[in-house]
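Forwarding the complex inputs:
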Amino acid sequence: MKYVDEYRDKKQCLRLASLINAQVKKNNYKIMEVCGTHTAAIHNFGLKNLLSKRIELISGPGCPVCVTSDGYLRNVLNLLKRKDILLATYQDMVKVPVDHTSLEQEKSRGADVRSVQSALEALDLARNNLKREVVFLGVGFETTAPGTAIAIKIAQKERIENFSVYSAHKVIPEALLALCADKTLEIEGFLLPGHVSVVIGVKGYRPVAKQVKIPCVIAGFQPLDILLSIYRLIEAINSKKPILENEYQRIVSENGNPRAKALLQEVFQKQDSLWRGLGVIPQSGLGIRKSFEKFDAFKKFKLKNEMISKVSGSSCLCADVLKGKLTPSACPLFVKKCNPLSPQGPCMVSREGTCRTYFEYRQN
Amino acid sequence: MDKITLSHGSGGVLTQELISKIFLKVFKNPYLDALDDAAIFALSKHHYALTTDSFVVDPIIFPGGDIGKLAVCGTVNDLASCAAEPKFLTAGFILEEGLSFDILNKIVVSMSRQAKAAGVEIVTGDTKVVPRGKVDKIFINTTGVGMVKKRLSSSCIRPGDKILINGCIAQHGLSILLKRQNFSYSVAIKSDCNPLWGIVKLLLNANIDIRFMRDPTRGGVSSAMNEIATACRYSFLLQDSQIPVDNSCRHLGEILGLELLDIANEGKMLFFVNPKDAHRALRIMRSHPCGKNAAMIGETLVEKKSRVYLKTAVGGLRVVGSPLGESLPRIC
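Prediction (whole assembly, two chains):
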């Protein structure tokens, strides 16, 4: 398979891993992979097993389901009390626990919750169910947001009035700032998410990279991509150089995807957003612009303020996991009380969630 | 959780929980407690295997098969995995008002064809029709009786035993997925749905020292391997690079980010074989149409931790977990 097999070459991987290990000069390197897909790939290919124990790969908040706040979900549950609502969502969201229930459980009690693969599929549901109010849960980063934007634009053009989006879309660069501002984390380098970078380009990180002053490398998702990026990060950490490099050049360009960026600009505007575990991060969310407010479920159904989190008192430590302060296996709930069958927090739900990845691959 | 969710039917951990907490608790008896694919019992001098399975696959006709073919193969393969020669099948049909005769006929003909191929007779049946919307087109239940040729058990597995599979994995699940989602994928992936008694019989007749067999259906190879590991307590080591995967499946798995080890098969069997017979078994399997791509994919370790390890293609090592829940319901 072109663009896959050559990046999984065993000899090259082993060679690169030994080059990385030869570079290790101090006791501990803290590198955060921001993206959940990276976390999954690192486990899937057993890469930690190839690297020196002194390289600590911390999983970051880059899983859309995991960072969606409980306030948002509570609003969704309230929405479901209306009998005319047809809720369309990505599959991962249905299992997230909130207030002792979940969308899956509400569904088994009769709520109309449908899994879709895209916002356009949700739009189809609206076309085919004219008597119902179809609400699409817009979650995800710069990767899924353009798709939501397209659906909203089509809905406006075709005047599909029973369609709306409840946006929890978020952007990555602002989250990096927030992570770096937390001095207890001591992150020394970021493995930047490849997919988000396809949209925003290297340029999308430039302002943030200047502020965080630690090495950042945009990485692809094949083993060689990841290893090469780690190699560059370790080198930069050793020489104390705050680089911003693109190791995923076969797909990521300096300017990103202009069409996707234009869509984001046209339909969304940045606003403060509550991230599960990270709190409110200024200008890190994407709200629907006034010109499209007819399709904004938040306004249409007059939802309550979603910026209030009520999970802080519970024993779920997802917040610390999302920040990389705690590895899932160190959480007292891990496996015994919290597993994909009875998840206590969102990190155990999504396939990109850190806890779920640790569980699936039984990593300690 | 107080209600049945679709995940309870996934064949994963929730299904196990449903079985043990609801059915096993009430129906408790030594035959059922073994929780094998079929119950083994003795009548006069012989041992027989009895198994039942219901089929609700959506769509009812898919590339490589249909619900009828599946209903015969599924039950025949459950018997085959207990080294039992399939003898008789029953067939129960629940039909939805409005189902066309054409489709029903096609399904029944397909059942008959598969039954012949597997050397089994469909000897009794039942039909119910329910109002529109009460079932989806057609549901089939088949029950099968077979004569046990060799007593197998997961407790026969020993360290060093080789793990063999008779071909490429994940074809059934992916073919259903493609058909259902209407993906415009350039290659049609055909389900591997096929009766496996033929290949099992070949191995038994050649006196291959088979220790245990399991057909990795719902939950795929990961689920089957984990169940066996739990039952026999040994750990297993699989070699990613040795697991046969068809190119079109591999590509689709890459695109959709699917773990192929978790995906259902309907014409595959995992064989645990005495290492001295492993190569001979492989040669025999490859001589059969259902085993052209047979491969040795791993071995049993000395360690007794009930774990399934995978040596990844790039040389790393990881644990393969049992899939939980099912992203795709009604695959069989």
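The longest strand of chain A covers residues 279-288.
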